[in-house]
Amino acid sequence: MNVRRSAAALAAVTALTGAAAAPAVAASPSPSASPTLPSGLYGSADPTYDGVWRQSLALLAQDTVGVKPAARAVDWLTGQQCSNGAWAPFRVDPALACNAKTMVDTNSTAAAVQALAALGGHDDATDRAVTWLKSAQNKDGGWGYTATGAGDTNSTSVVIGALTAVGEKPADVRKGGHSPYDALQQLALPCDGAGAGAFAFQPDREGKLVANADATAAGVLGALGKGMVVEPGERAEVGECETGPKGLAANGAAHLSQALAKDGHLMSSLPGATDQPDYGNTADAVVALAAQGGAERAAEPLAWLEKNSAAWAKQSGPAAYAQLILAAHATGTNPRDFGGTDLVKQLNATGPAPQPAASKSTDGDADSKADSDSDGSGVSVWWMVGVGLAAGAGIGFLISGRNKRQQP
């Protein structure tokens, strides 16, 4: 989700610049002045790296809880699409045609597809997007962050979610004779030994797979053929170490359960973030666990989020509220009373007011950006800005996220 994209972006930085995979950044740089924000966009932070991603999550979360988004919020998202069907993280002037320098990516595109498919009425946009995604598929069956990038668990999984959202069968979408599930199989660790059952983001430089909790949360959903929305009561529980995609999901869920057992939450792997909880990845893990084993399997991390996530979400903005709403939805929890917080109200306040219930009218669709939404994409986006600066290149396609440095 929004806070799990930095490693894909960092991999792209490395490929383009030859920079080290994890350049040292002493401290998160201060945000630069944001460009003039479109009135239909959620969040008040600079959208350069995550505009489409956070907008897609906001619209998807609203639809999930029965809120009809403002028409101009939806129009903003559709207006960002390039003629070839892909989305970039943010286009300052959508009236200008995309060209070879427009840094489109699979993650923004797949997130937009999931949101627009849920809202309905955007078949032309989603059809063109899926056509582009298929053209970007790698010969191993998976996807990288960019159309020519090395495949990774997170990108492959979010594209699987997009395919499912439009009624495609991911297993039938093949390149070089391989399906997306074949690609996930190659990124999954064995169900015994170090990192048992987890997914790696990508193989390391020696070709070794190292467990990554963030990639594992994504991989569980991808292996189940699911997108970001998991309906309460769904489960695909099978025995661990079984073969096939559902077996991969069971193994991944077991790894997440073990990682969560000590504290009820996952830990941040950002540079300098010693002993800091990872709220966004914990929310992702809740959705993954609920999808694989039901709400009871996600009960402990969900309870931790209800107690501890309010300040993080307020600071991080619309995508964070959306993640928590999706976690609540997957477990049958009321997002309007999530540890005493009305997540839906808070999300709505970060963008244009939704349409009135049971009304097609967009009258009164006033921009209600919340002053408290100081960072619409998450604090760690500025770490990614620092990465781009450290790499010495003008990178326009990084989107917000946690550092996906491989973790045990």
TrEMBL record:
Ranges for region Disordered: 337-376
Bias type Basic and acidic residues, positions: 362-372
TM ranges: 381-399
Domain of life of the source: Bacteria
Keywords: Membrane, Signal, Transmembrane, Transmembrane helix
Signal peptide start and end residues: 1-26
Coiled-coil spans in chain: none
Designated name of the protein: Secreted protein
Organism, as annotated: Streptomyces lincolnensis
